[in-house]
Design goal:
Strand order of the largest sheet of chain A: 3-2-4-1-5
Order of helices and strands of chain A: EHEHEHEHEHEHEHEEHEH
Helix content of chain A: 25-40%
Largest sheet of chain A: 5 strands, parallel
CATH superfamily of the largest domain in chain A: Tetrapyrrole methylase, C-terminal domain
Distance between the termini of chain A: 86 Å
Number of strands of chain A: 10
Shape of chain A: elongated
Structural class of chain A: alpha/beta
Strand content of chain A: 15-25%
CATH class of the largest domain in chain A: Alpha Beta
Number of domains of chain A: 2
Number of helices of chain A: 9
Oligomer: homodimer
Chain lengths: 260, 260
Amino acid sequence: MKTVGKVYLVGAGPGAEDLLTVRAARLLAAADVVFYDALVPAAIVALATRAQKIAVGKRCGAHSTAQLFINRRLIEAARQHAIVVRLKGGDPMLFGRAQEEIDALDDAGIAVEVVPGVTAAVAASAALKVSLTRRGVSRNVVFATPRVGKMERESDWIAAAALADTAVVYMGAREADALADALTRRGLAASTPVAIVENASIDDERCVVGTLGDLGRLAAALGGGPAIVVIGQVLREKLAAERLRAAKRESARTRVRRAS
Amino acid sequence: MKTVGKVYLVGAGPGAEDLLTVRAARLLAAADVVFYDALVPAAIVALATRAQKIAVGKRCGAHSTAQLFINRRLIEAARQHAIVVRLKGGDPMLFGRAQEEIDALDDAGIAVEVVPGVTAAVAASAALKVSLTRRGVSRNVVFATPRVGKMERESDWIAAAALADTAVVYMGAREADALADALTRRGLAASTPVAIVENASIDDERCVVGTLGDLGRLAAALGGGPAIVVIGQVLREKLAAERLRAAKRESARTRVRRAS
């Protein structure tokens, strides 16, 4: 009889090496094989000191054929090794394409366990120091992504995002203009506060704050790193503080000009 | 001059000791003082071996006066100690009342850092082995809570939850009947698949699966532990599998009865 191992779908967290869970770190150290997404930082993959490490495409760009290939490789690996780790950015169950892999492993009779992780939205919130929910301001938050497959409609998720007190859009920065347009058409004011956090929790983390009407310009000012867009009144004090700082800078500049 | 320390708002994760982040574990080990919510398991609080450990009320039940008292104690602690940890269940920025504390510390000129954690919703999803988002089924998910303050309206969050592909309701089990009613009035079919996960990630973890029309009965069958309600079509295979198992059990029972 063949050794049949177990596959662990593990959330790698938002990027910082120490925002991995203790369980994830232990599993990586013990793993025989690790399949990892392109978005998982090298420092985290490197924690799997004894494992064979195999890169398997992008977090969100995988085509179905690529997914079938990954499923097959996971099954093969579990038939040869005790501990197989499938490492995904953030949490596996949020925008991680985990279900296809869970179902394929289940169908093949292979045990699978999901190890939850810190999702990028809360790392972005931590970076901003702005809570996603807030007494009297936001009691609910919608997590969405604009990456639209051919079968998928835009209208419903935009409606849900427009109705929620706080909306967090994963990988939303590249389509910032379209996103702002769609939300404005759904009744959100152009003055609604927004923030974009790029590279949340890792080097080159950057936060920008502004309004929905300005979202395209804010996004254009960032680099190409993974970015989280936060939209809602939870950001209003942050926006006001940002404007105050800008006004002070402007006054200082005016004083310098007058003095010279 | 007084020593002025730093306050870390730390997510304790969903409950399991090893679903804490590595950063959180290190901060607890180094902390001088830890203020913790009632919902954080004792095993996690105990990781703060050298700290003075202070319980400060419930995760969601704190009144404003209690909150002001916590804010004041955090400020006092930071004026006397280098590392002050404020430990909250799940992630601090989701239903954690973090903003009041961040703002109070900011106003007092005390440095504050937020350490994100694994939120209960993804731990529940891991327990169910059902992804919250799924290609072609769910591209967005709303996190909400029915705990309604006097100033807050029900209608908007229910509408957002009804429109989202997947809805996750924190602490929703106790008000399961009202929740099901409100969502049904908003157009969700009584046949919509639902699940409740009680004590996600810890001892006595329990998952029940059924339909929205059945939510009250499902909730009543659980114990009194913290529970997460998941609603949406991402659960339809899980529900079908559950029904298949129930049908098989019923057939086996019938066979036994006929044989006797």
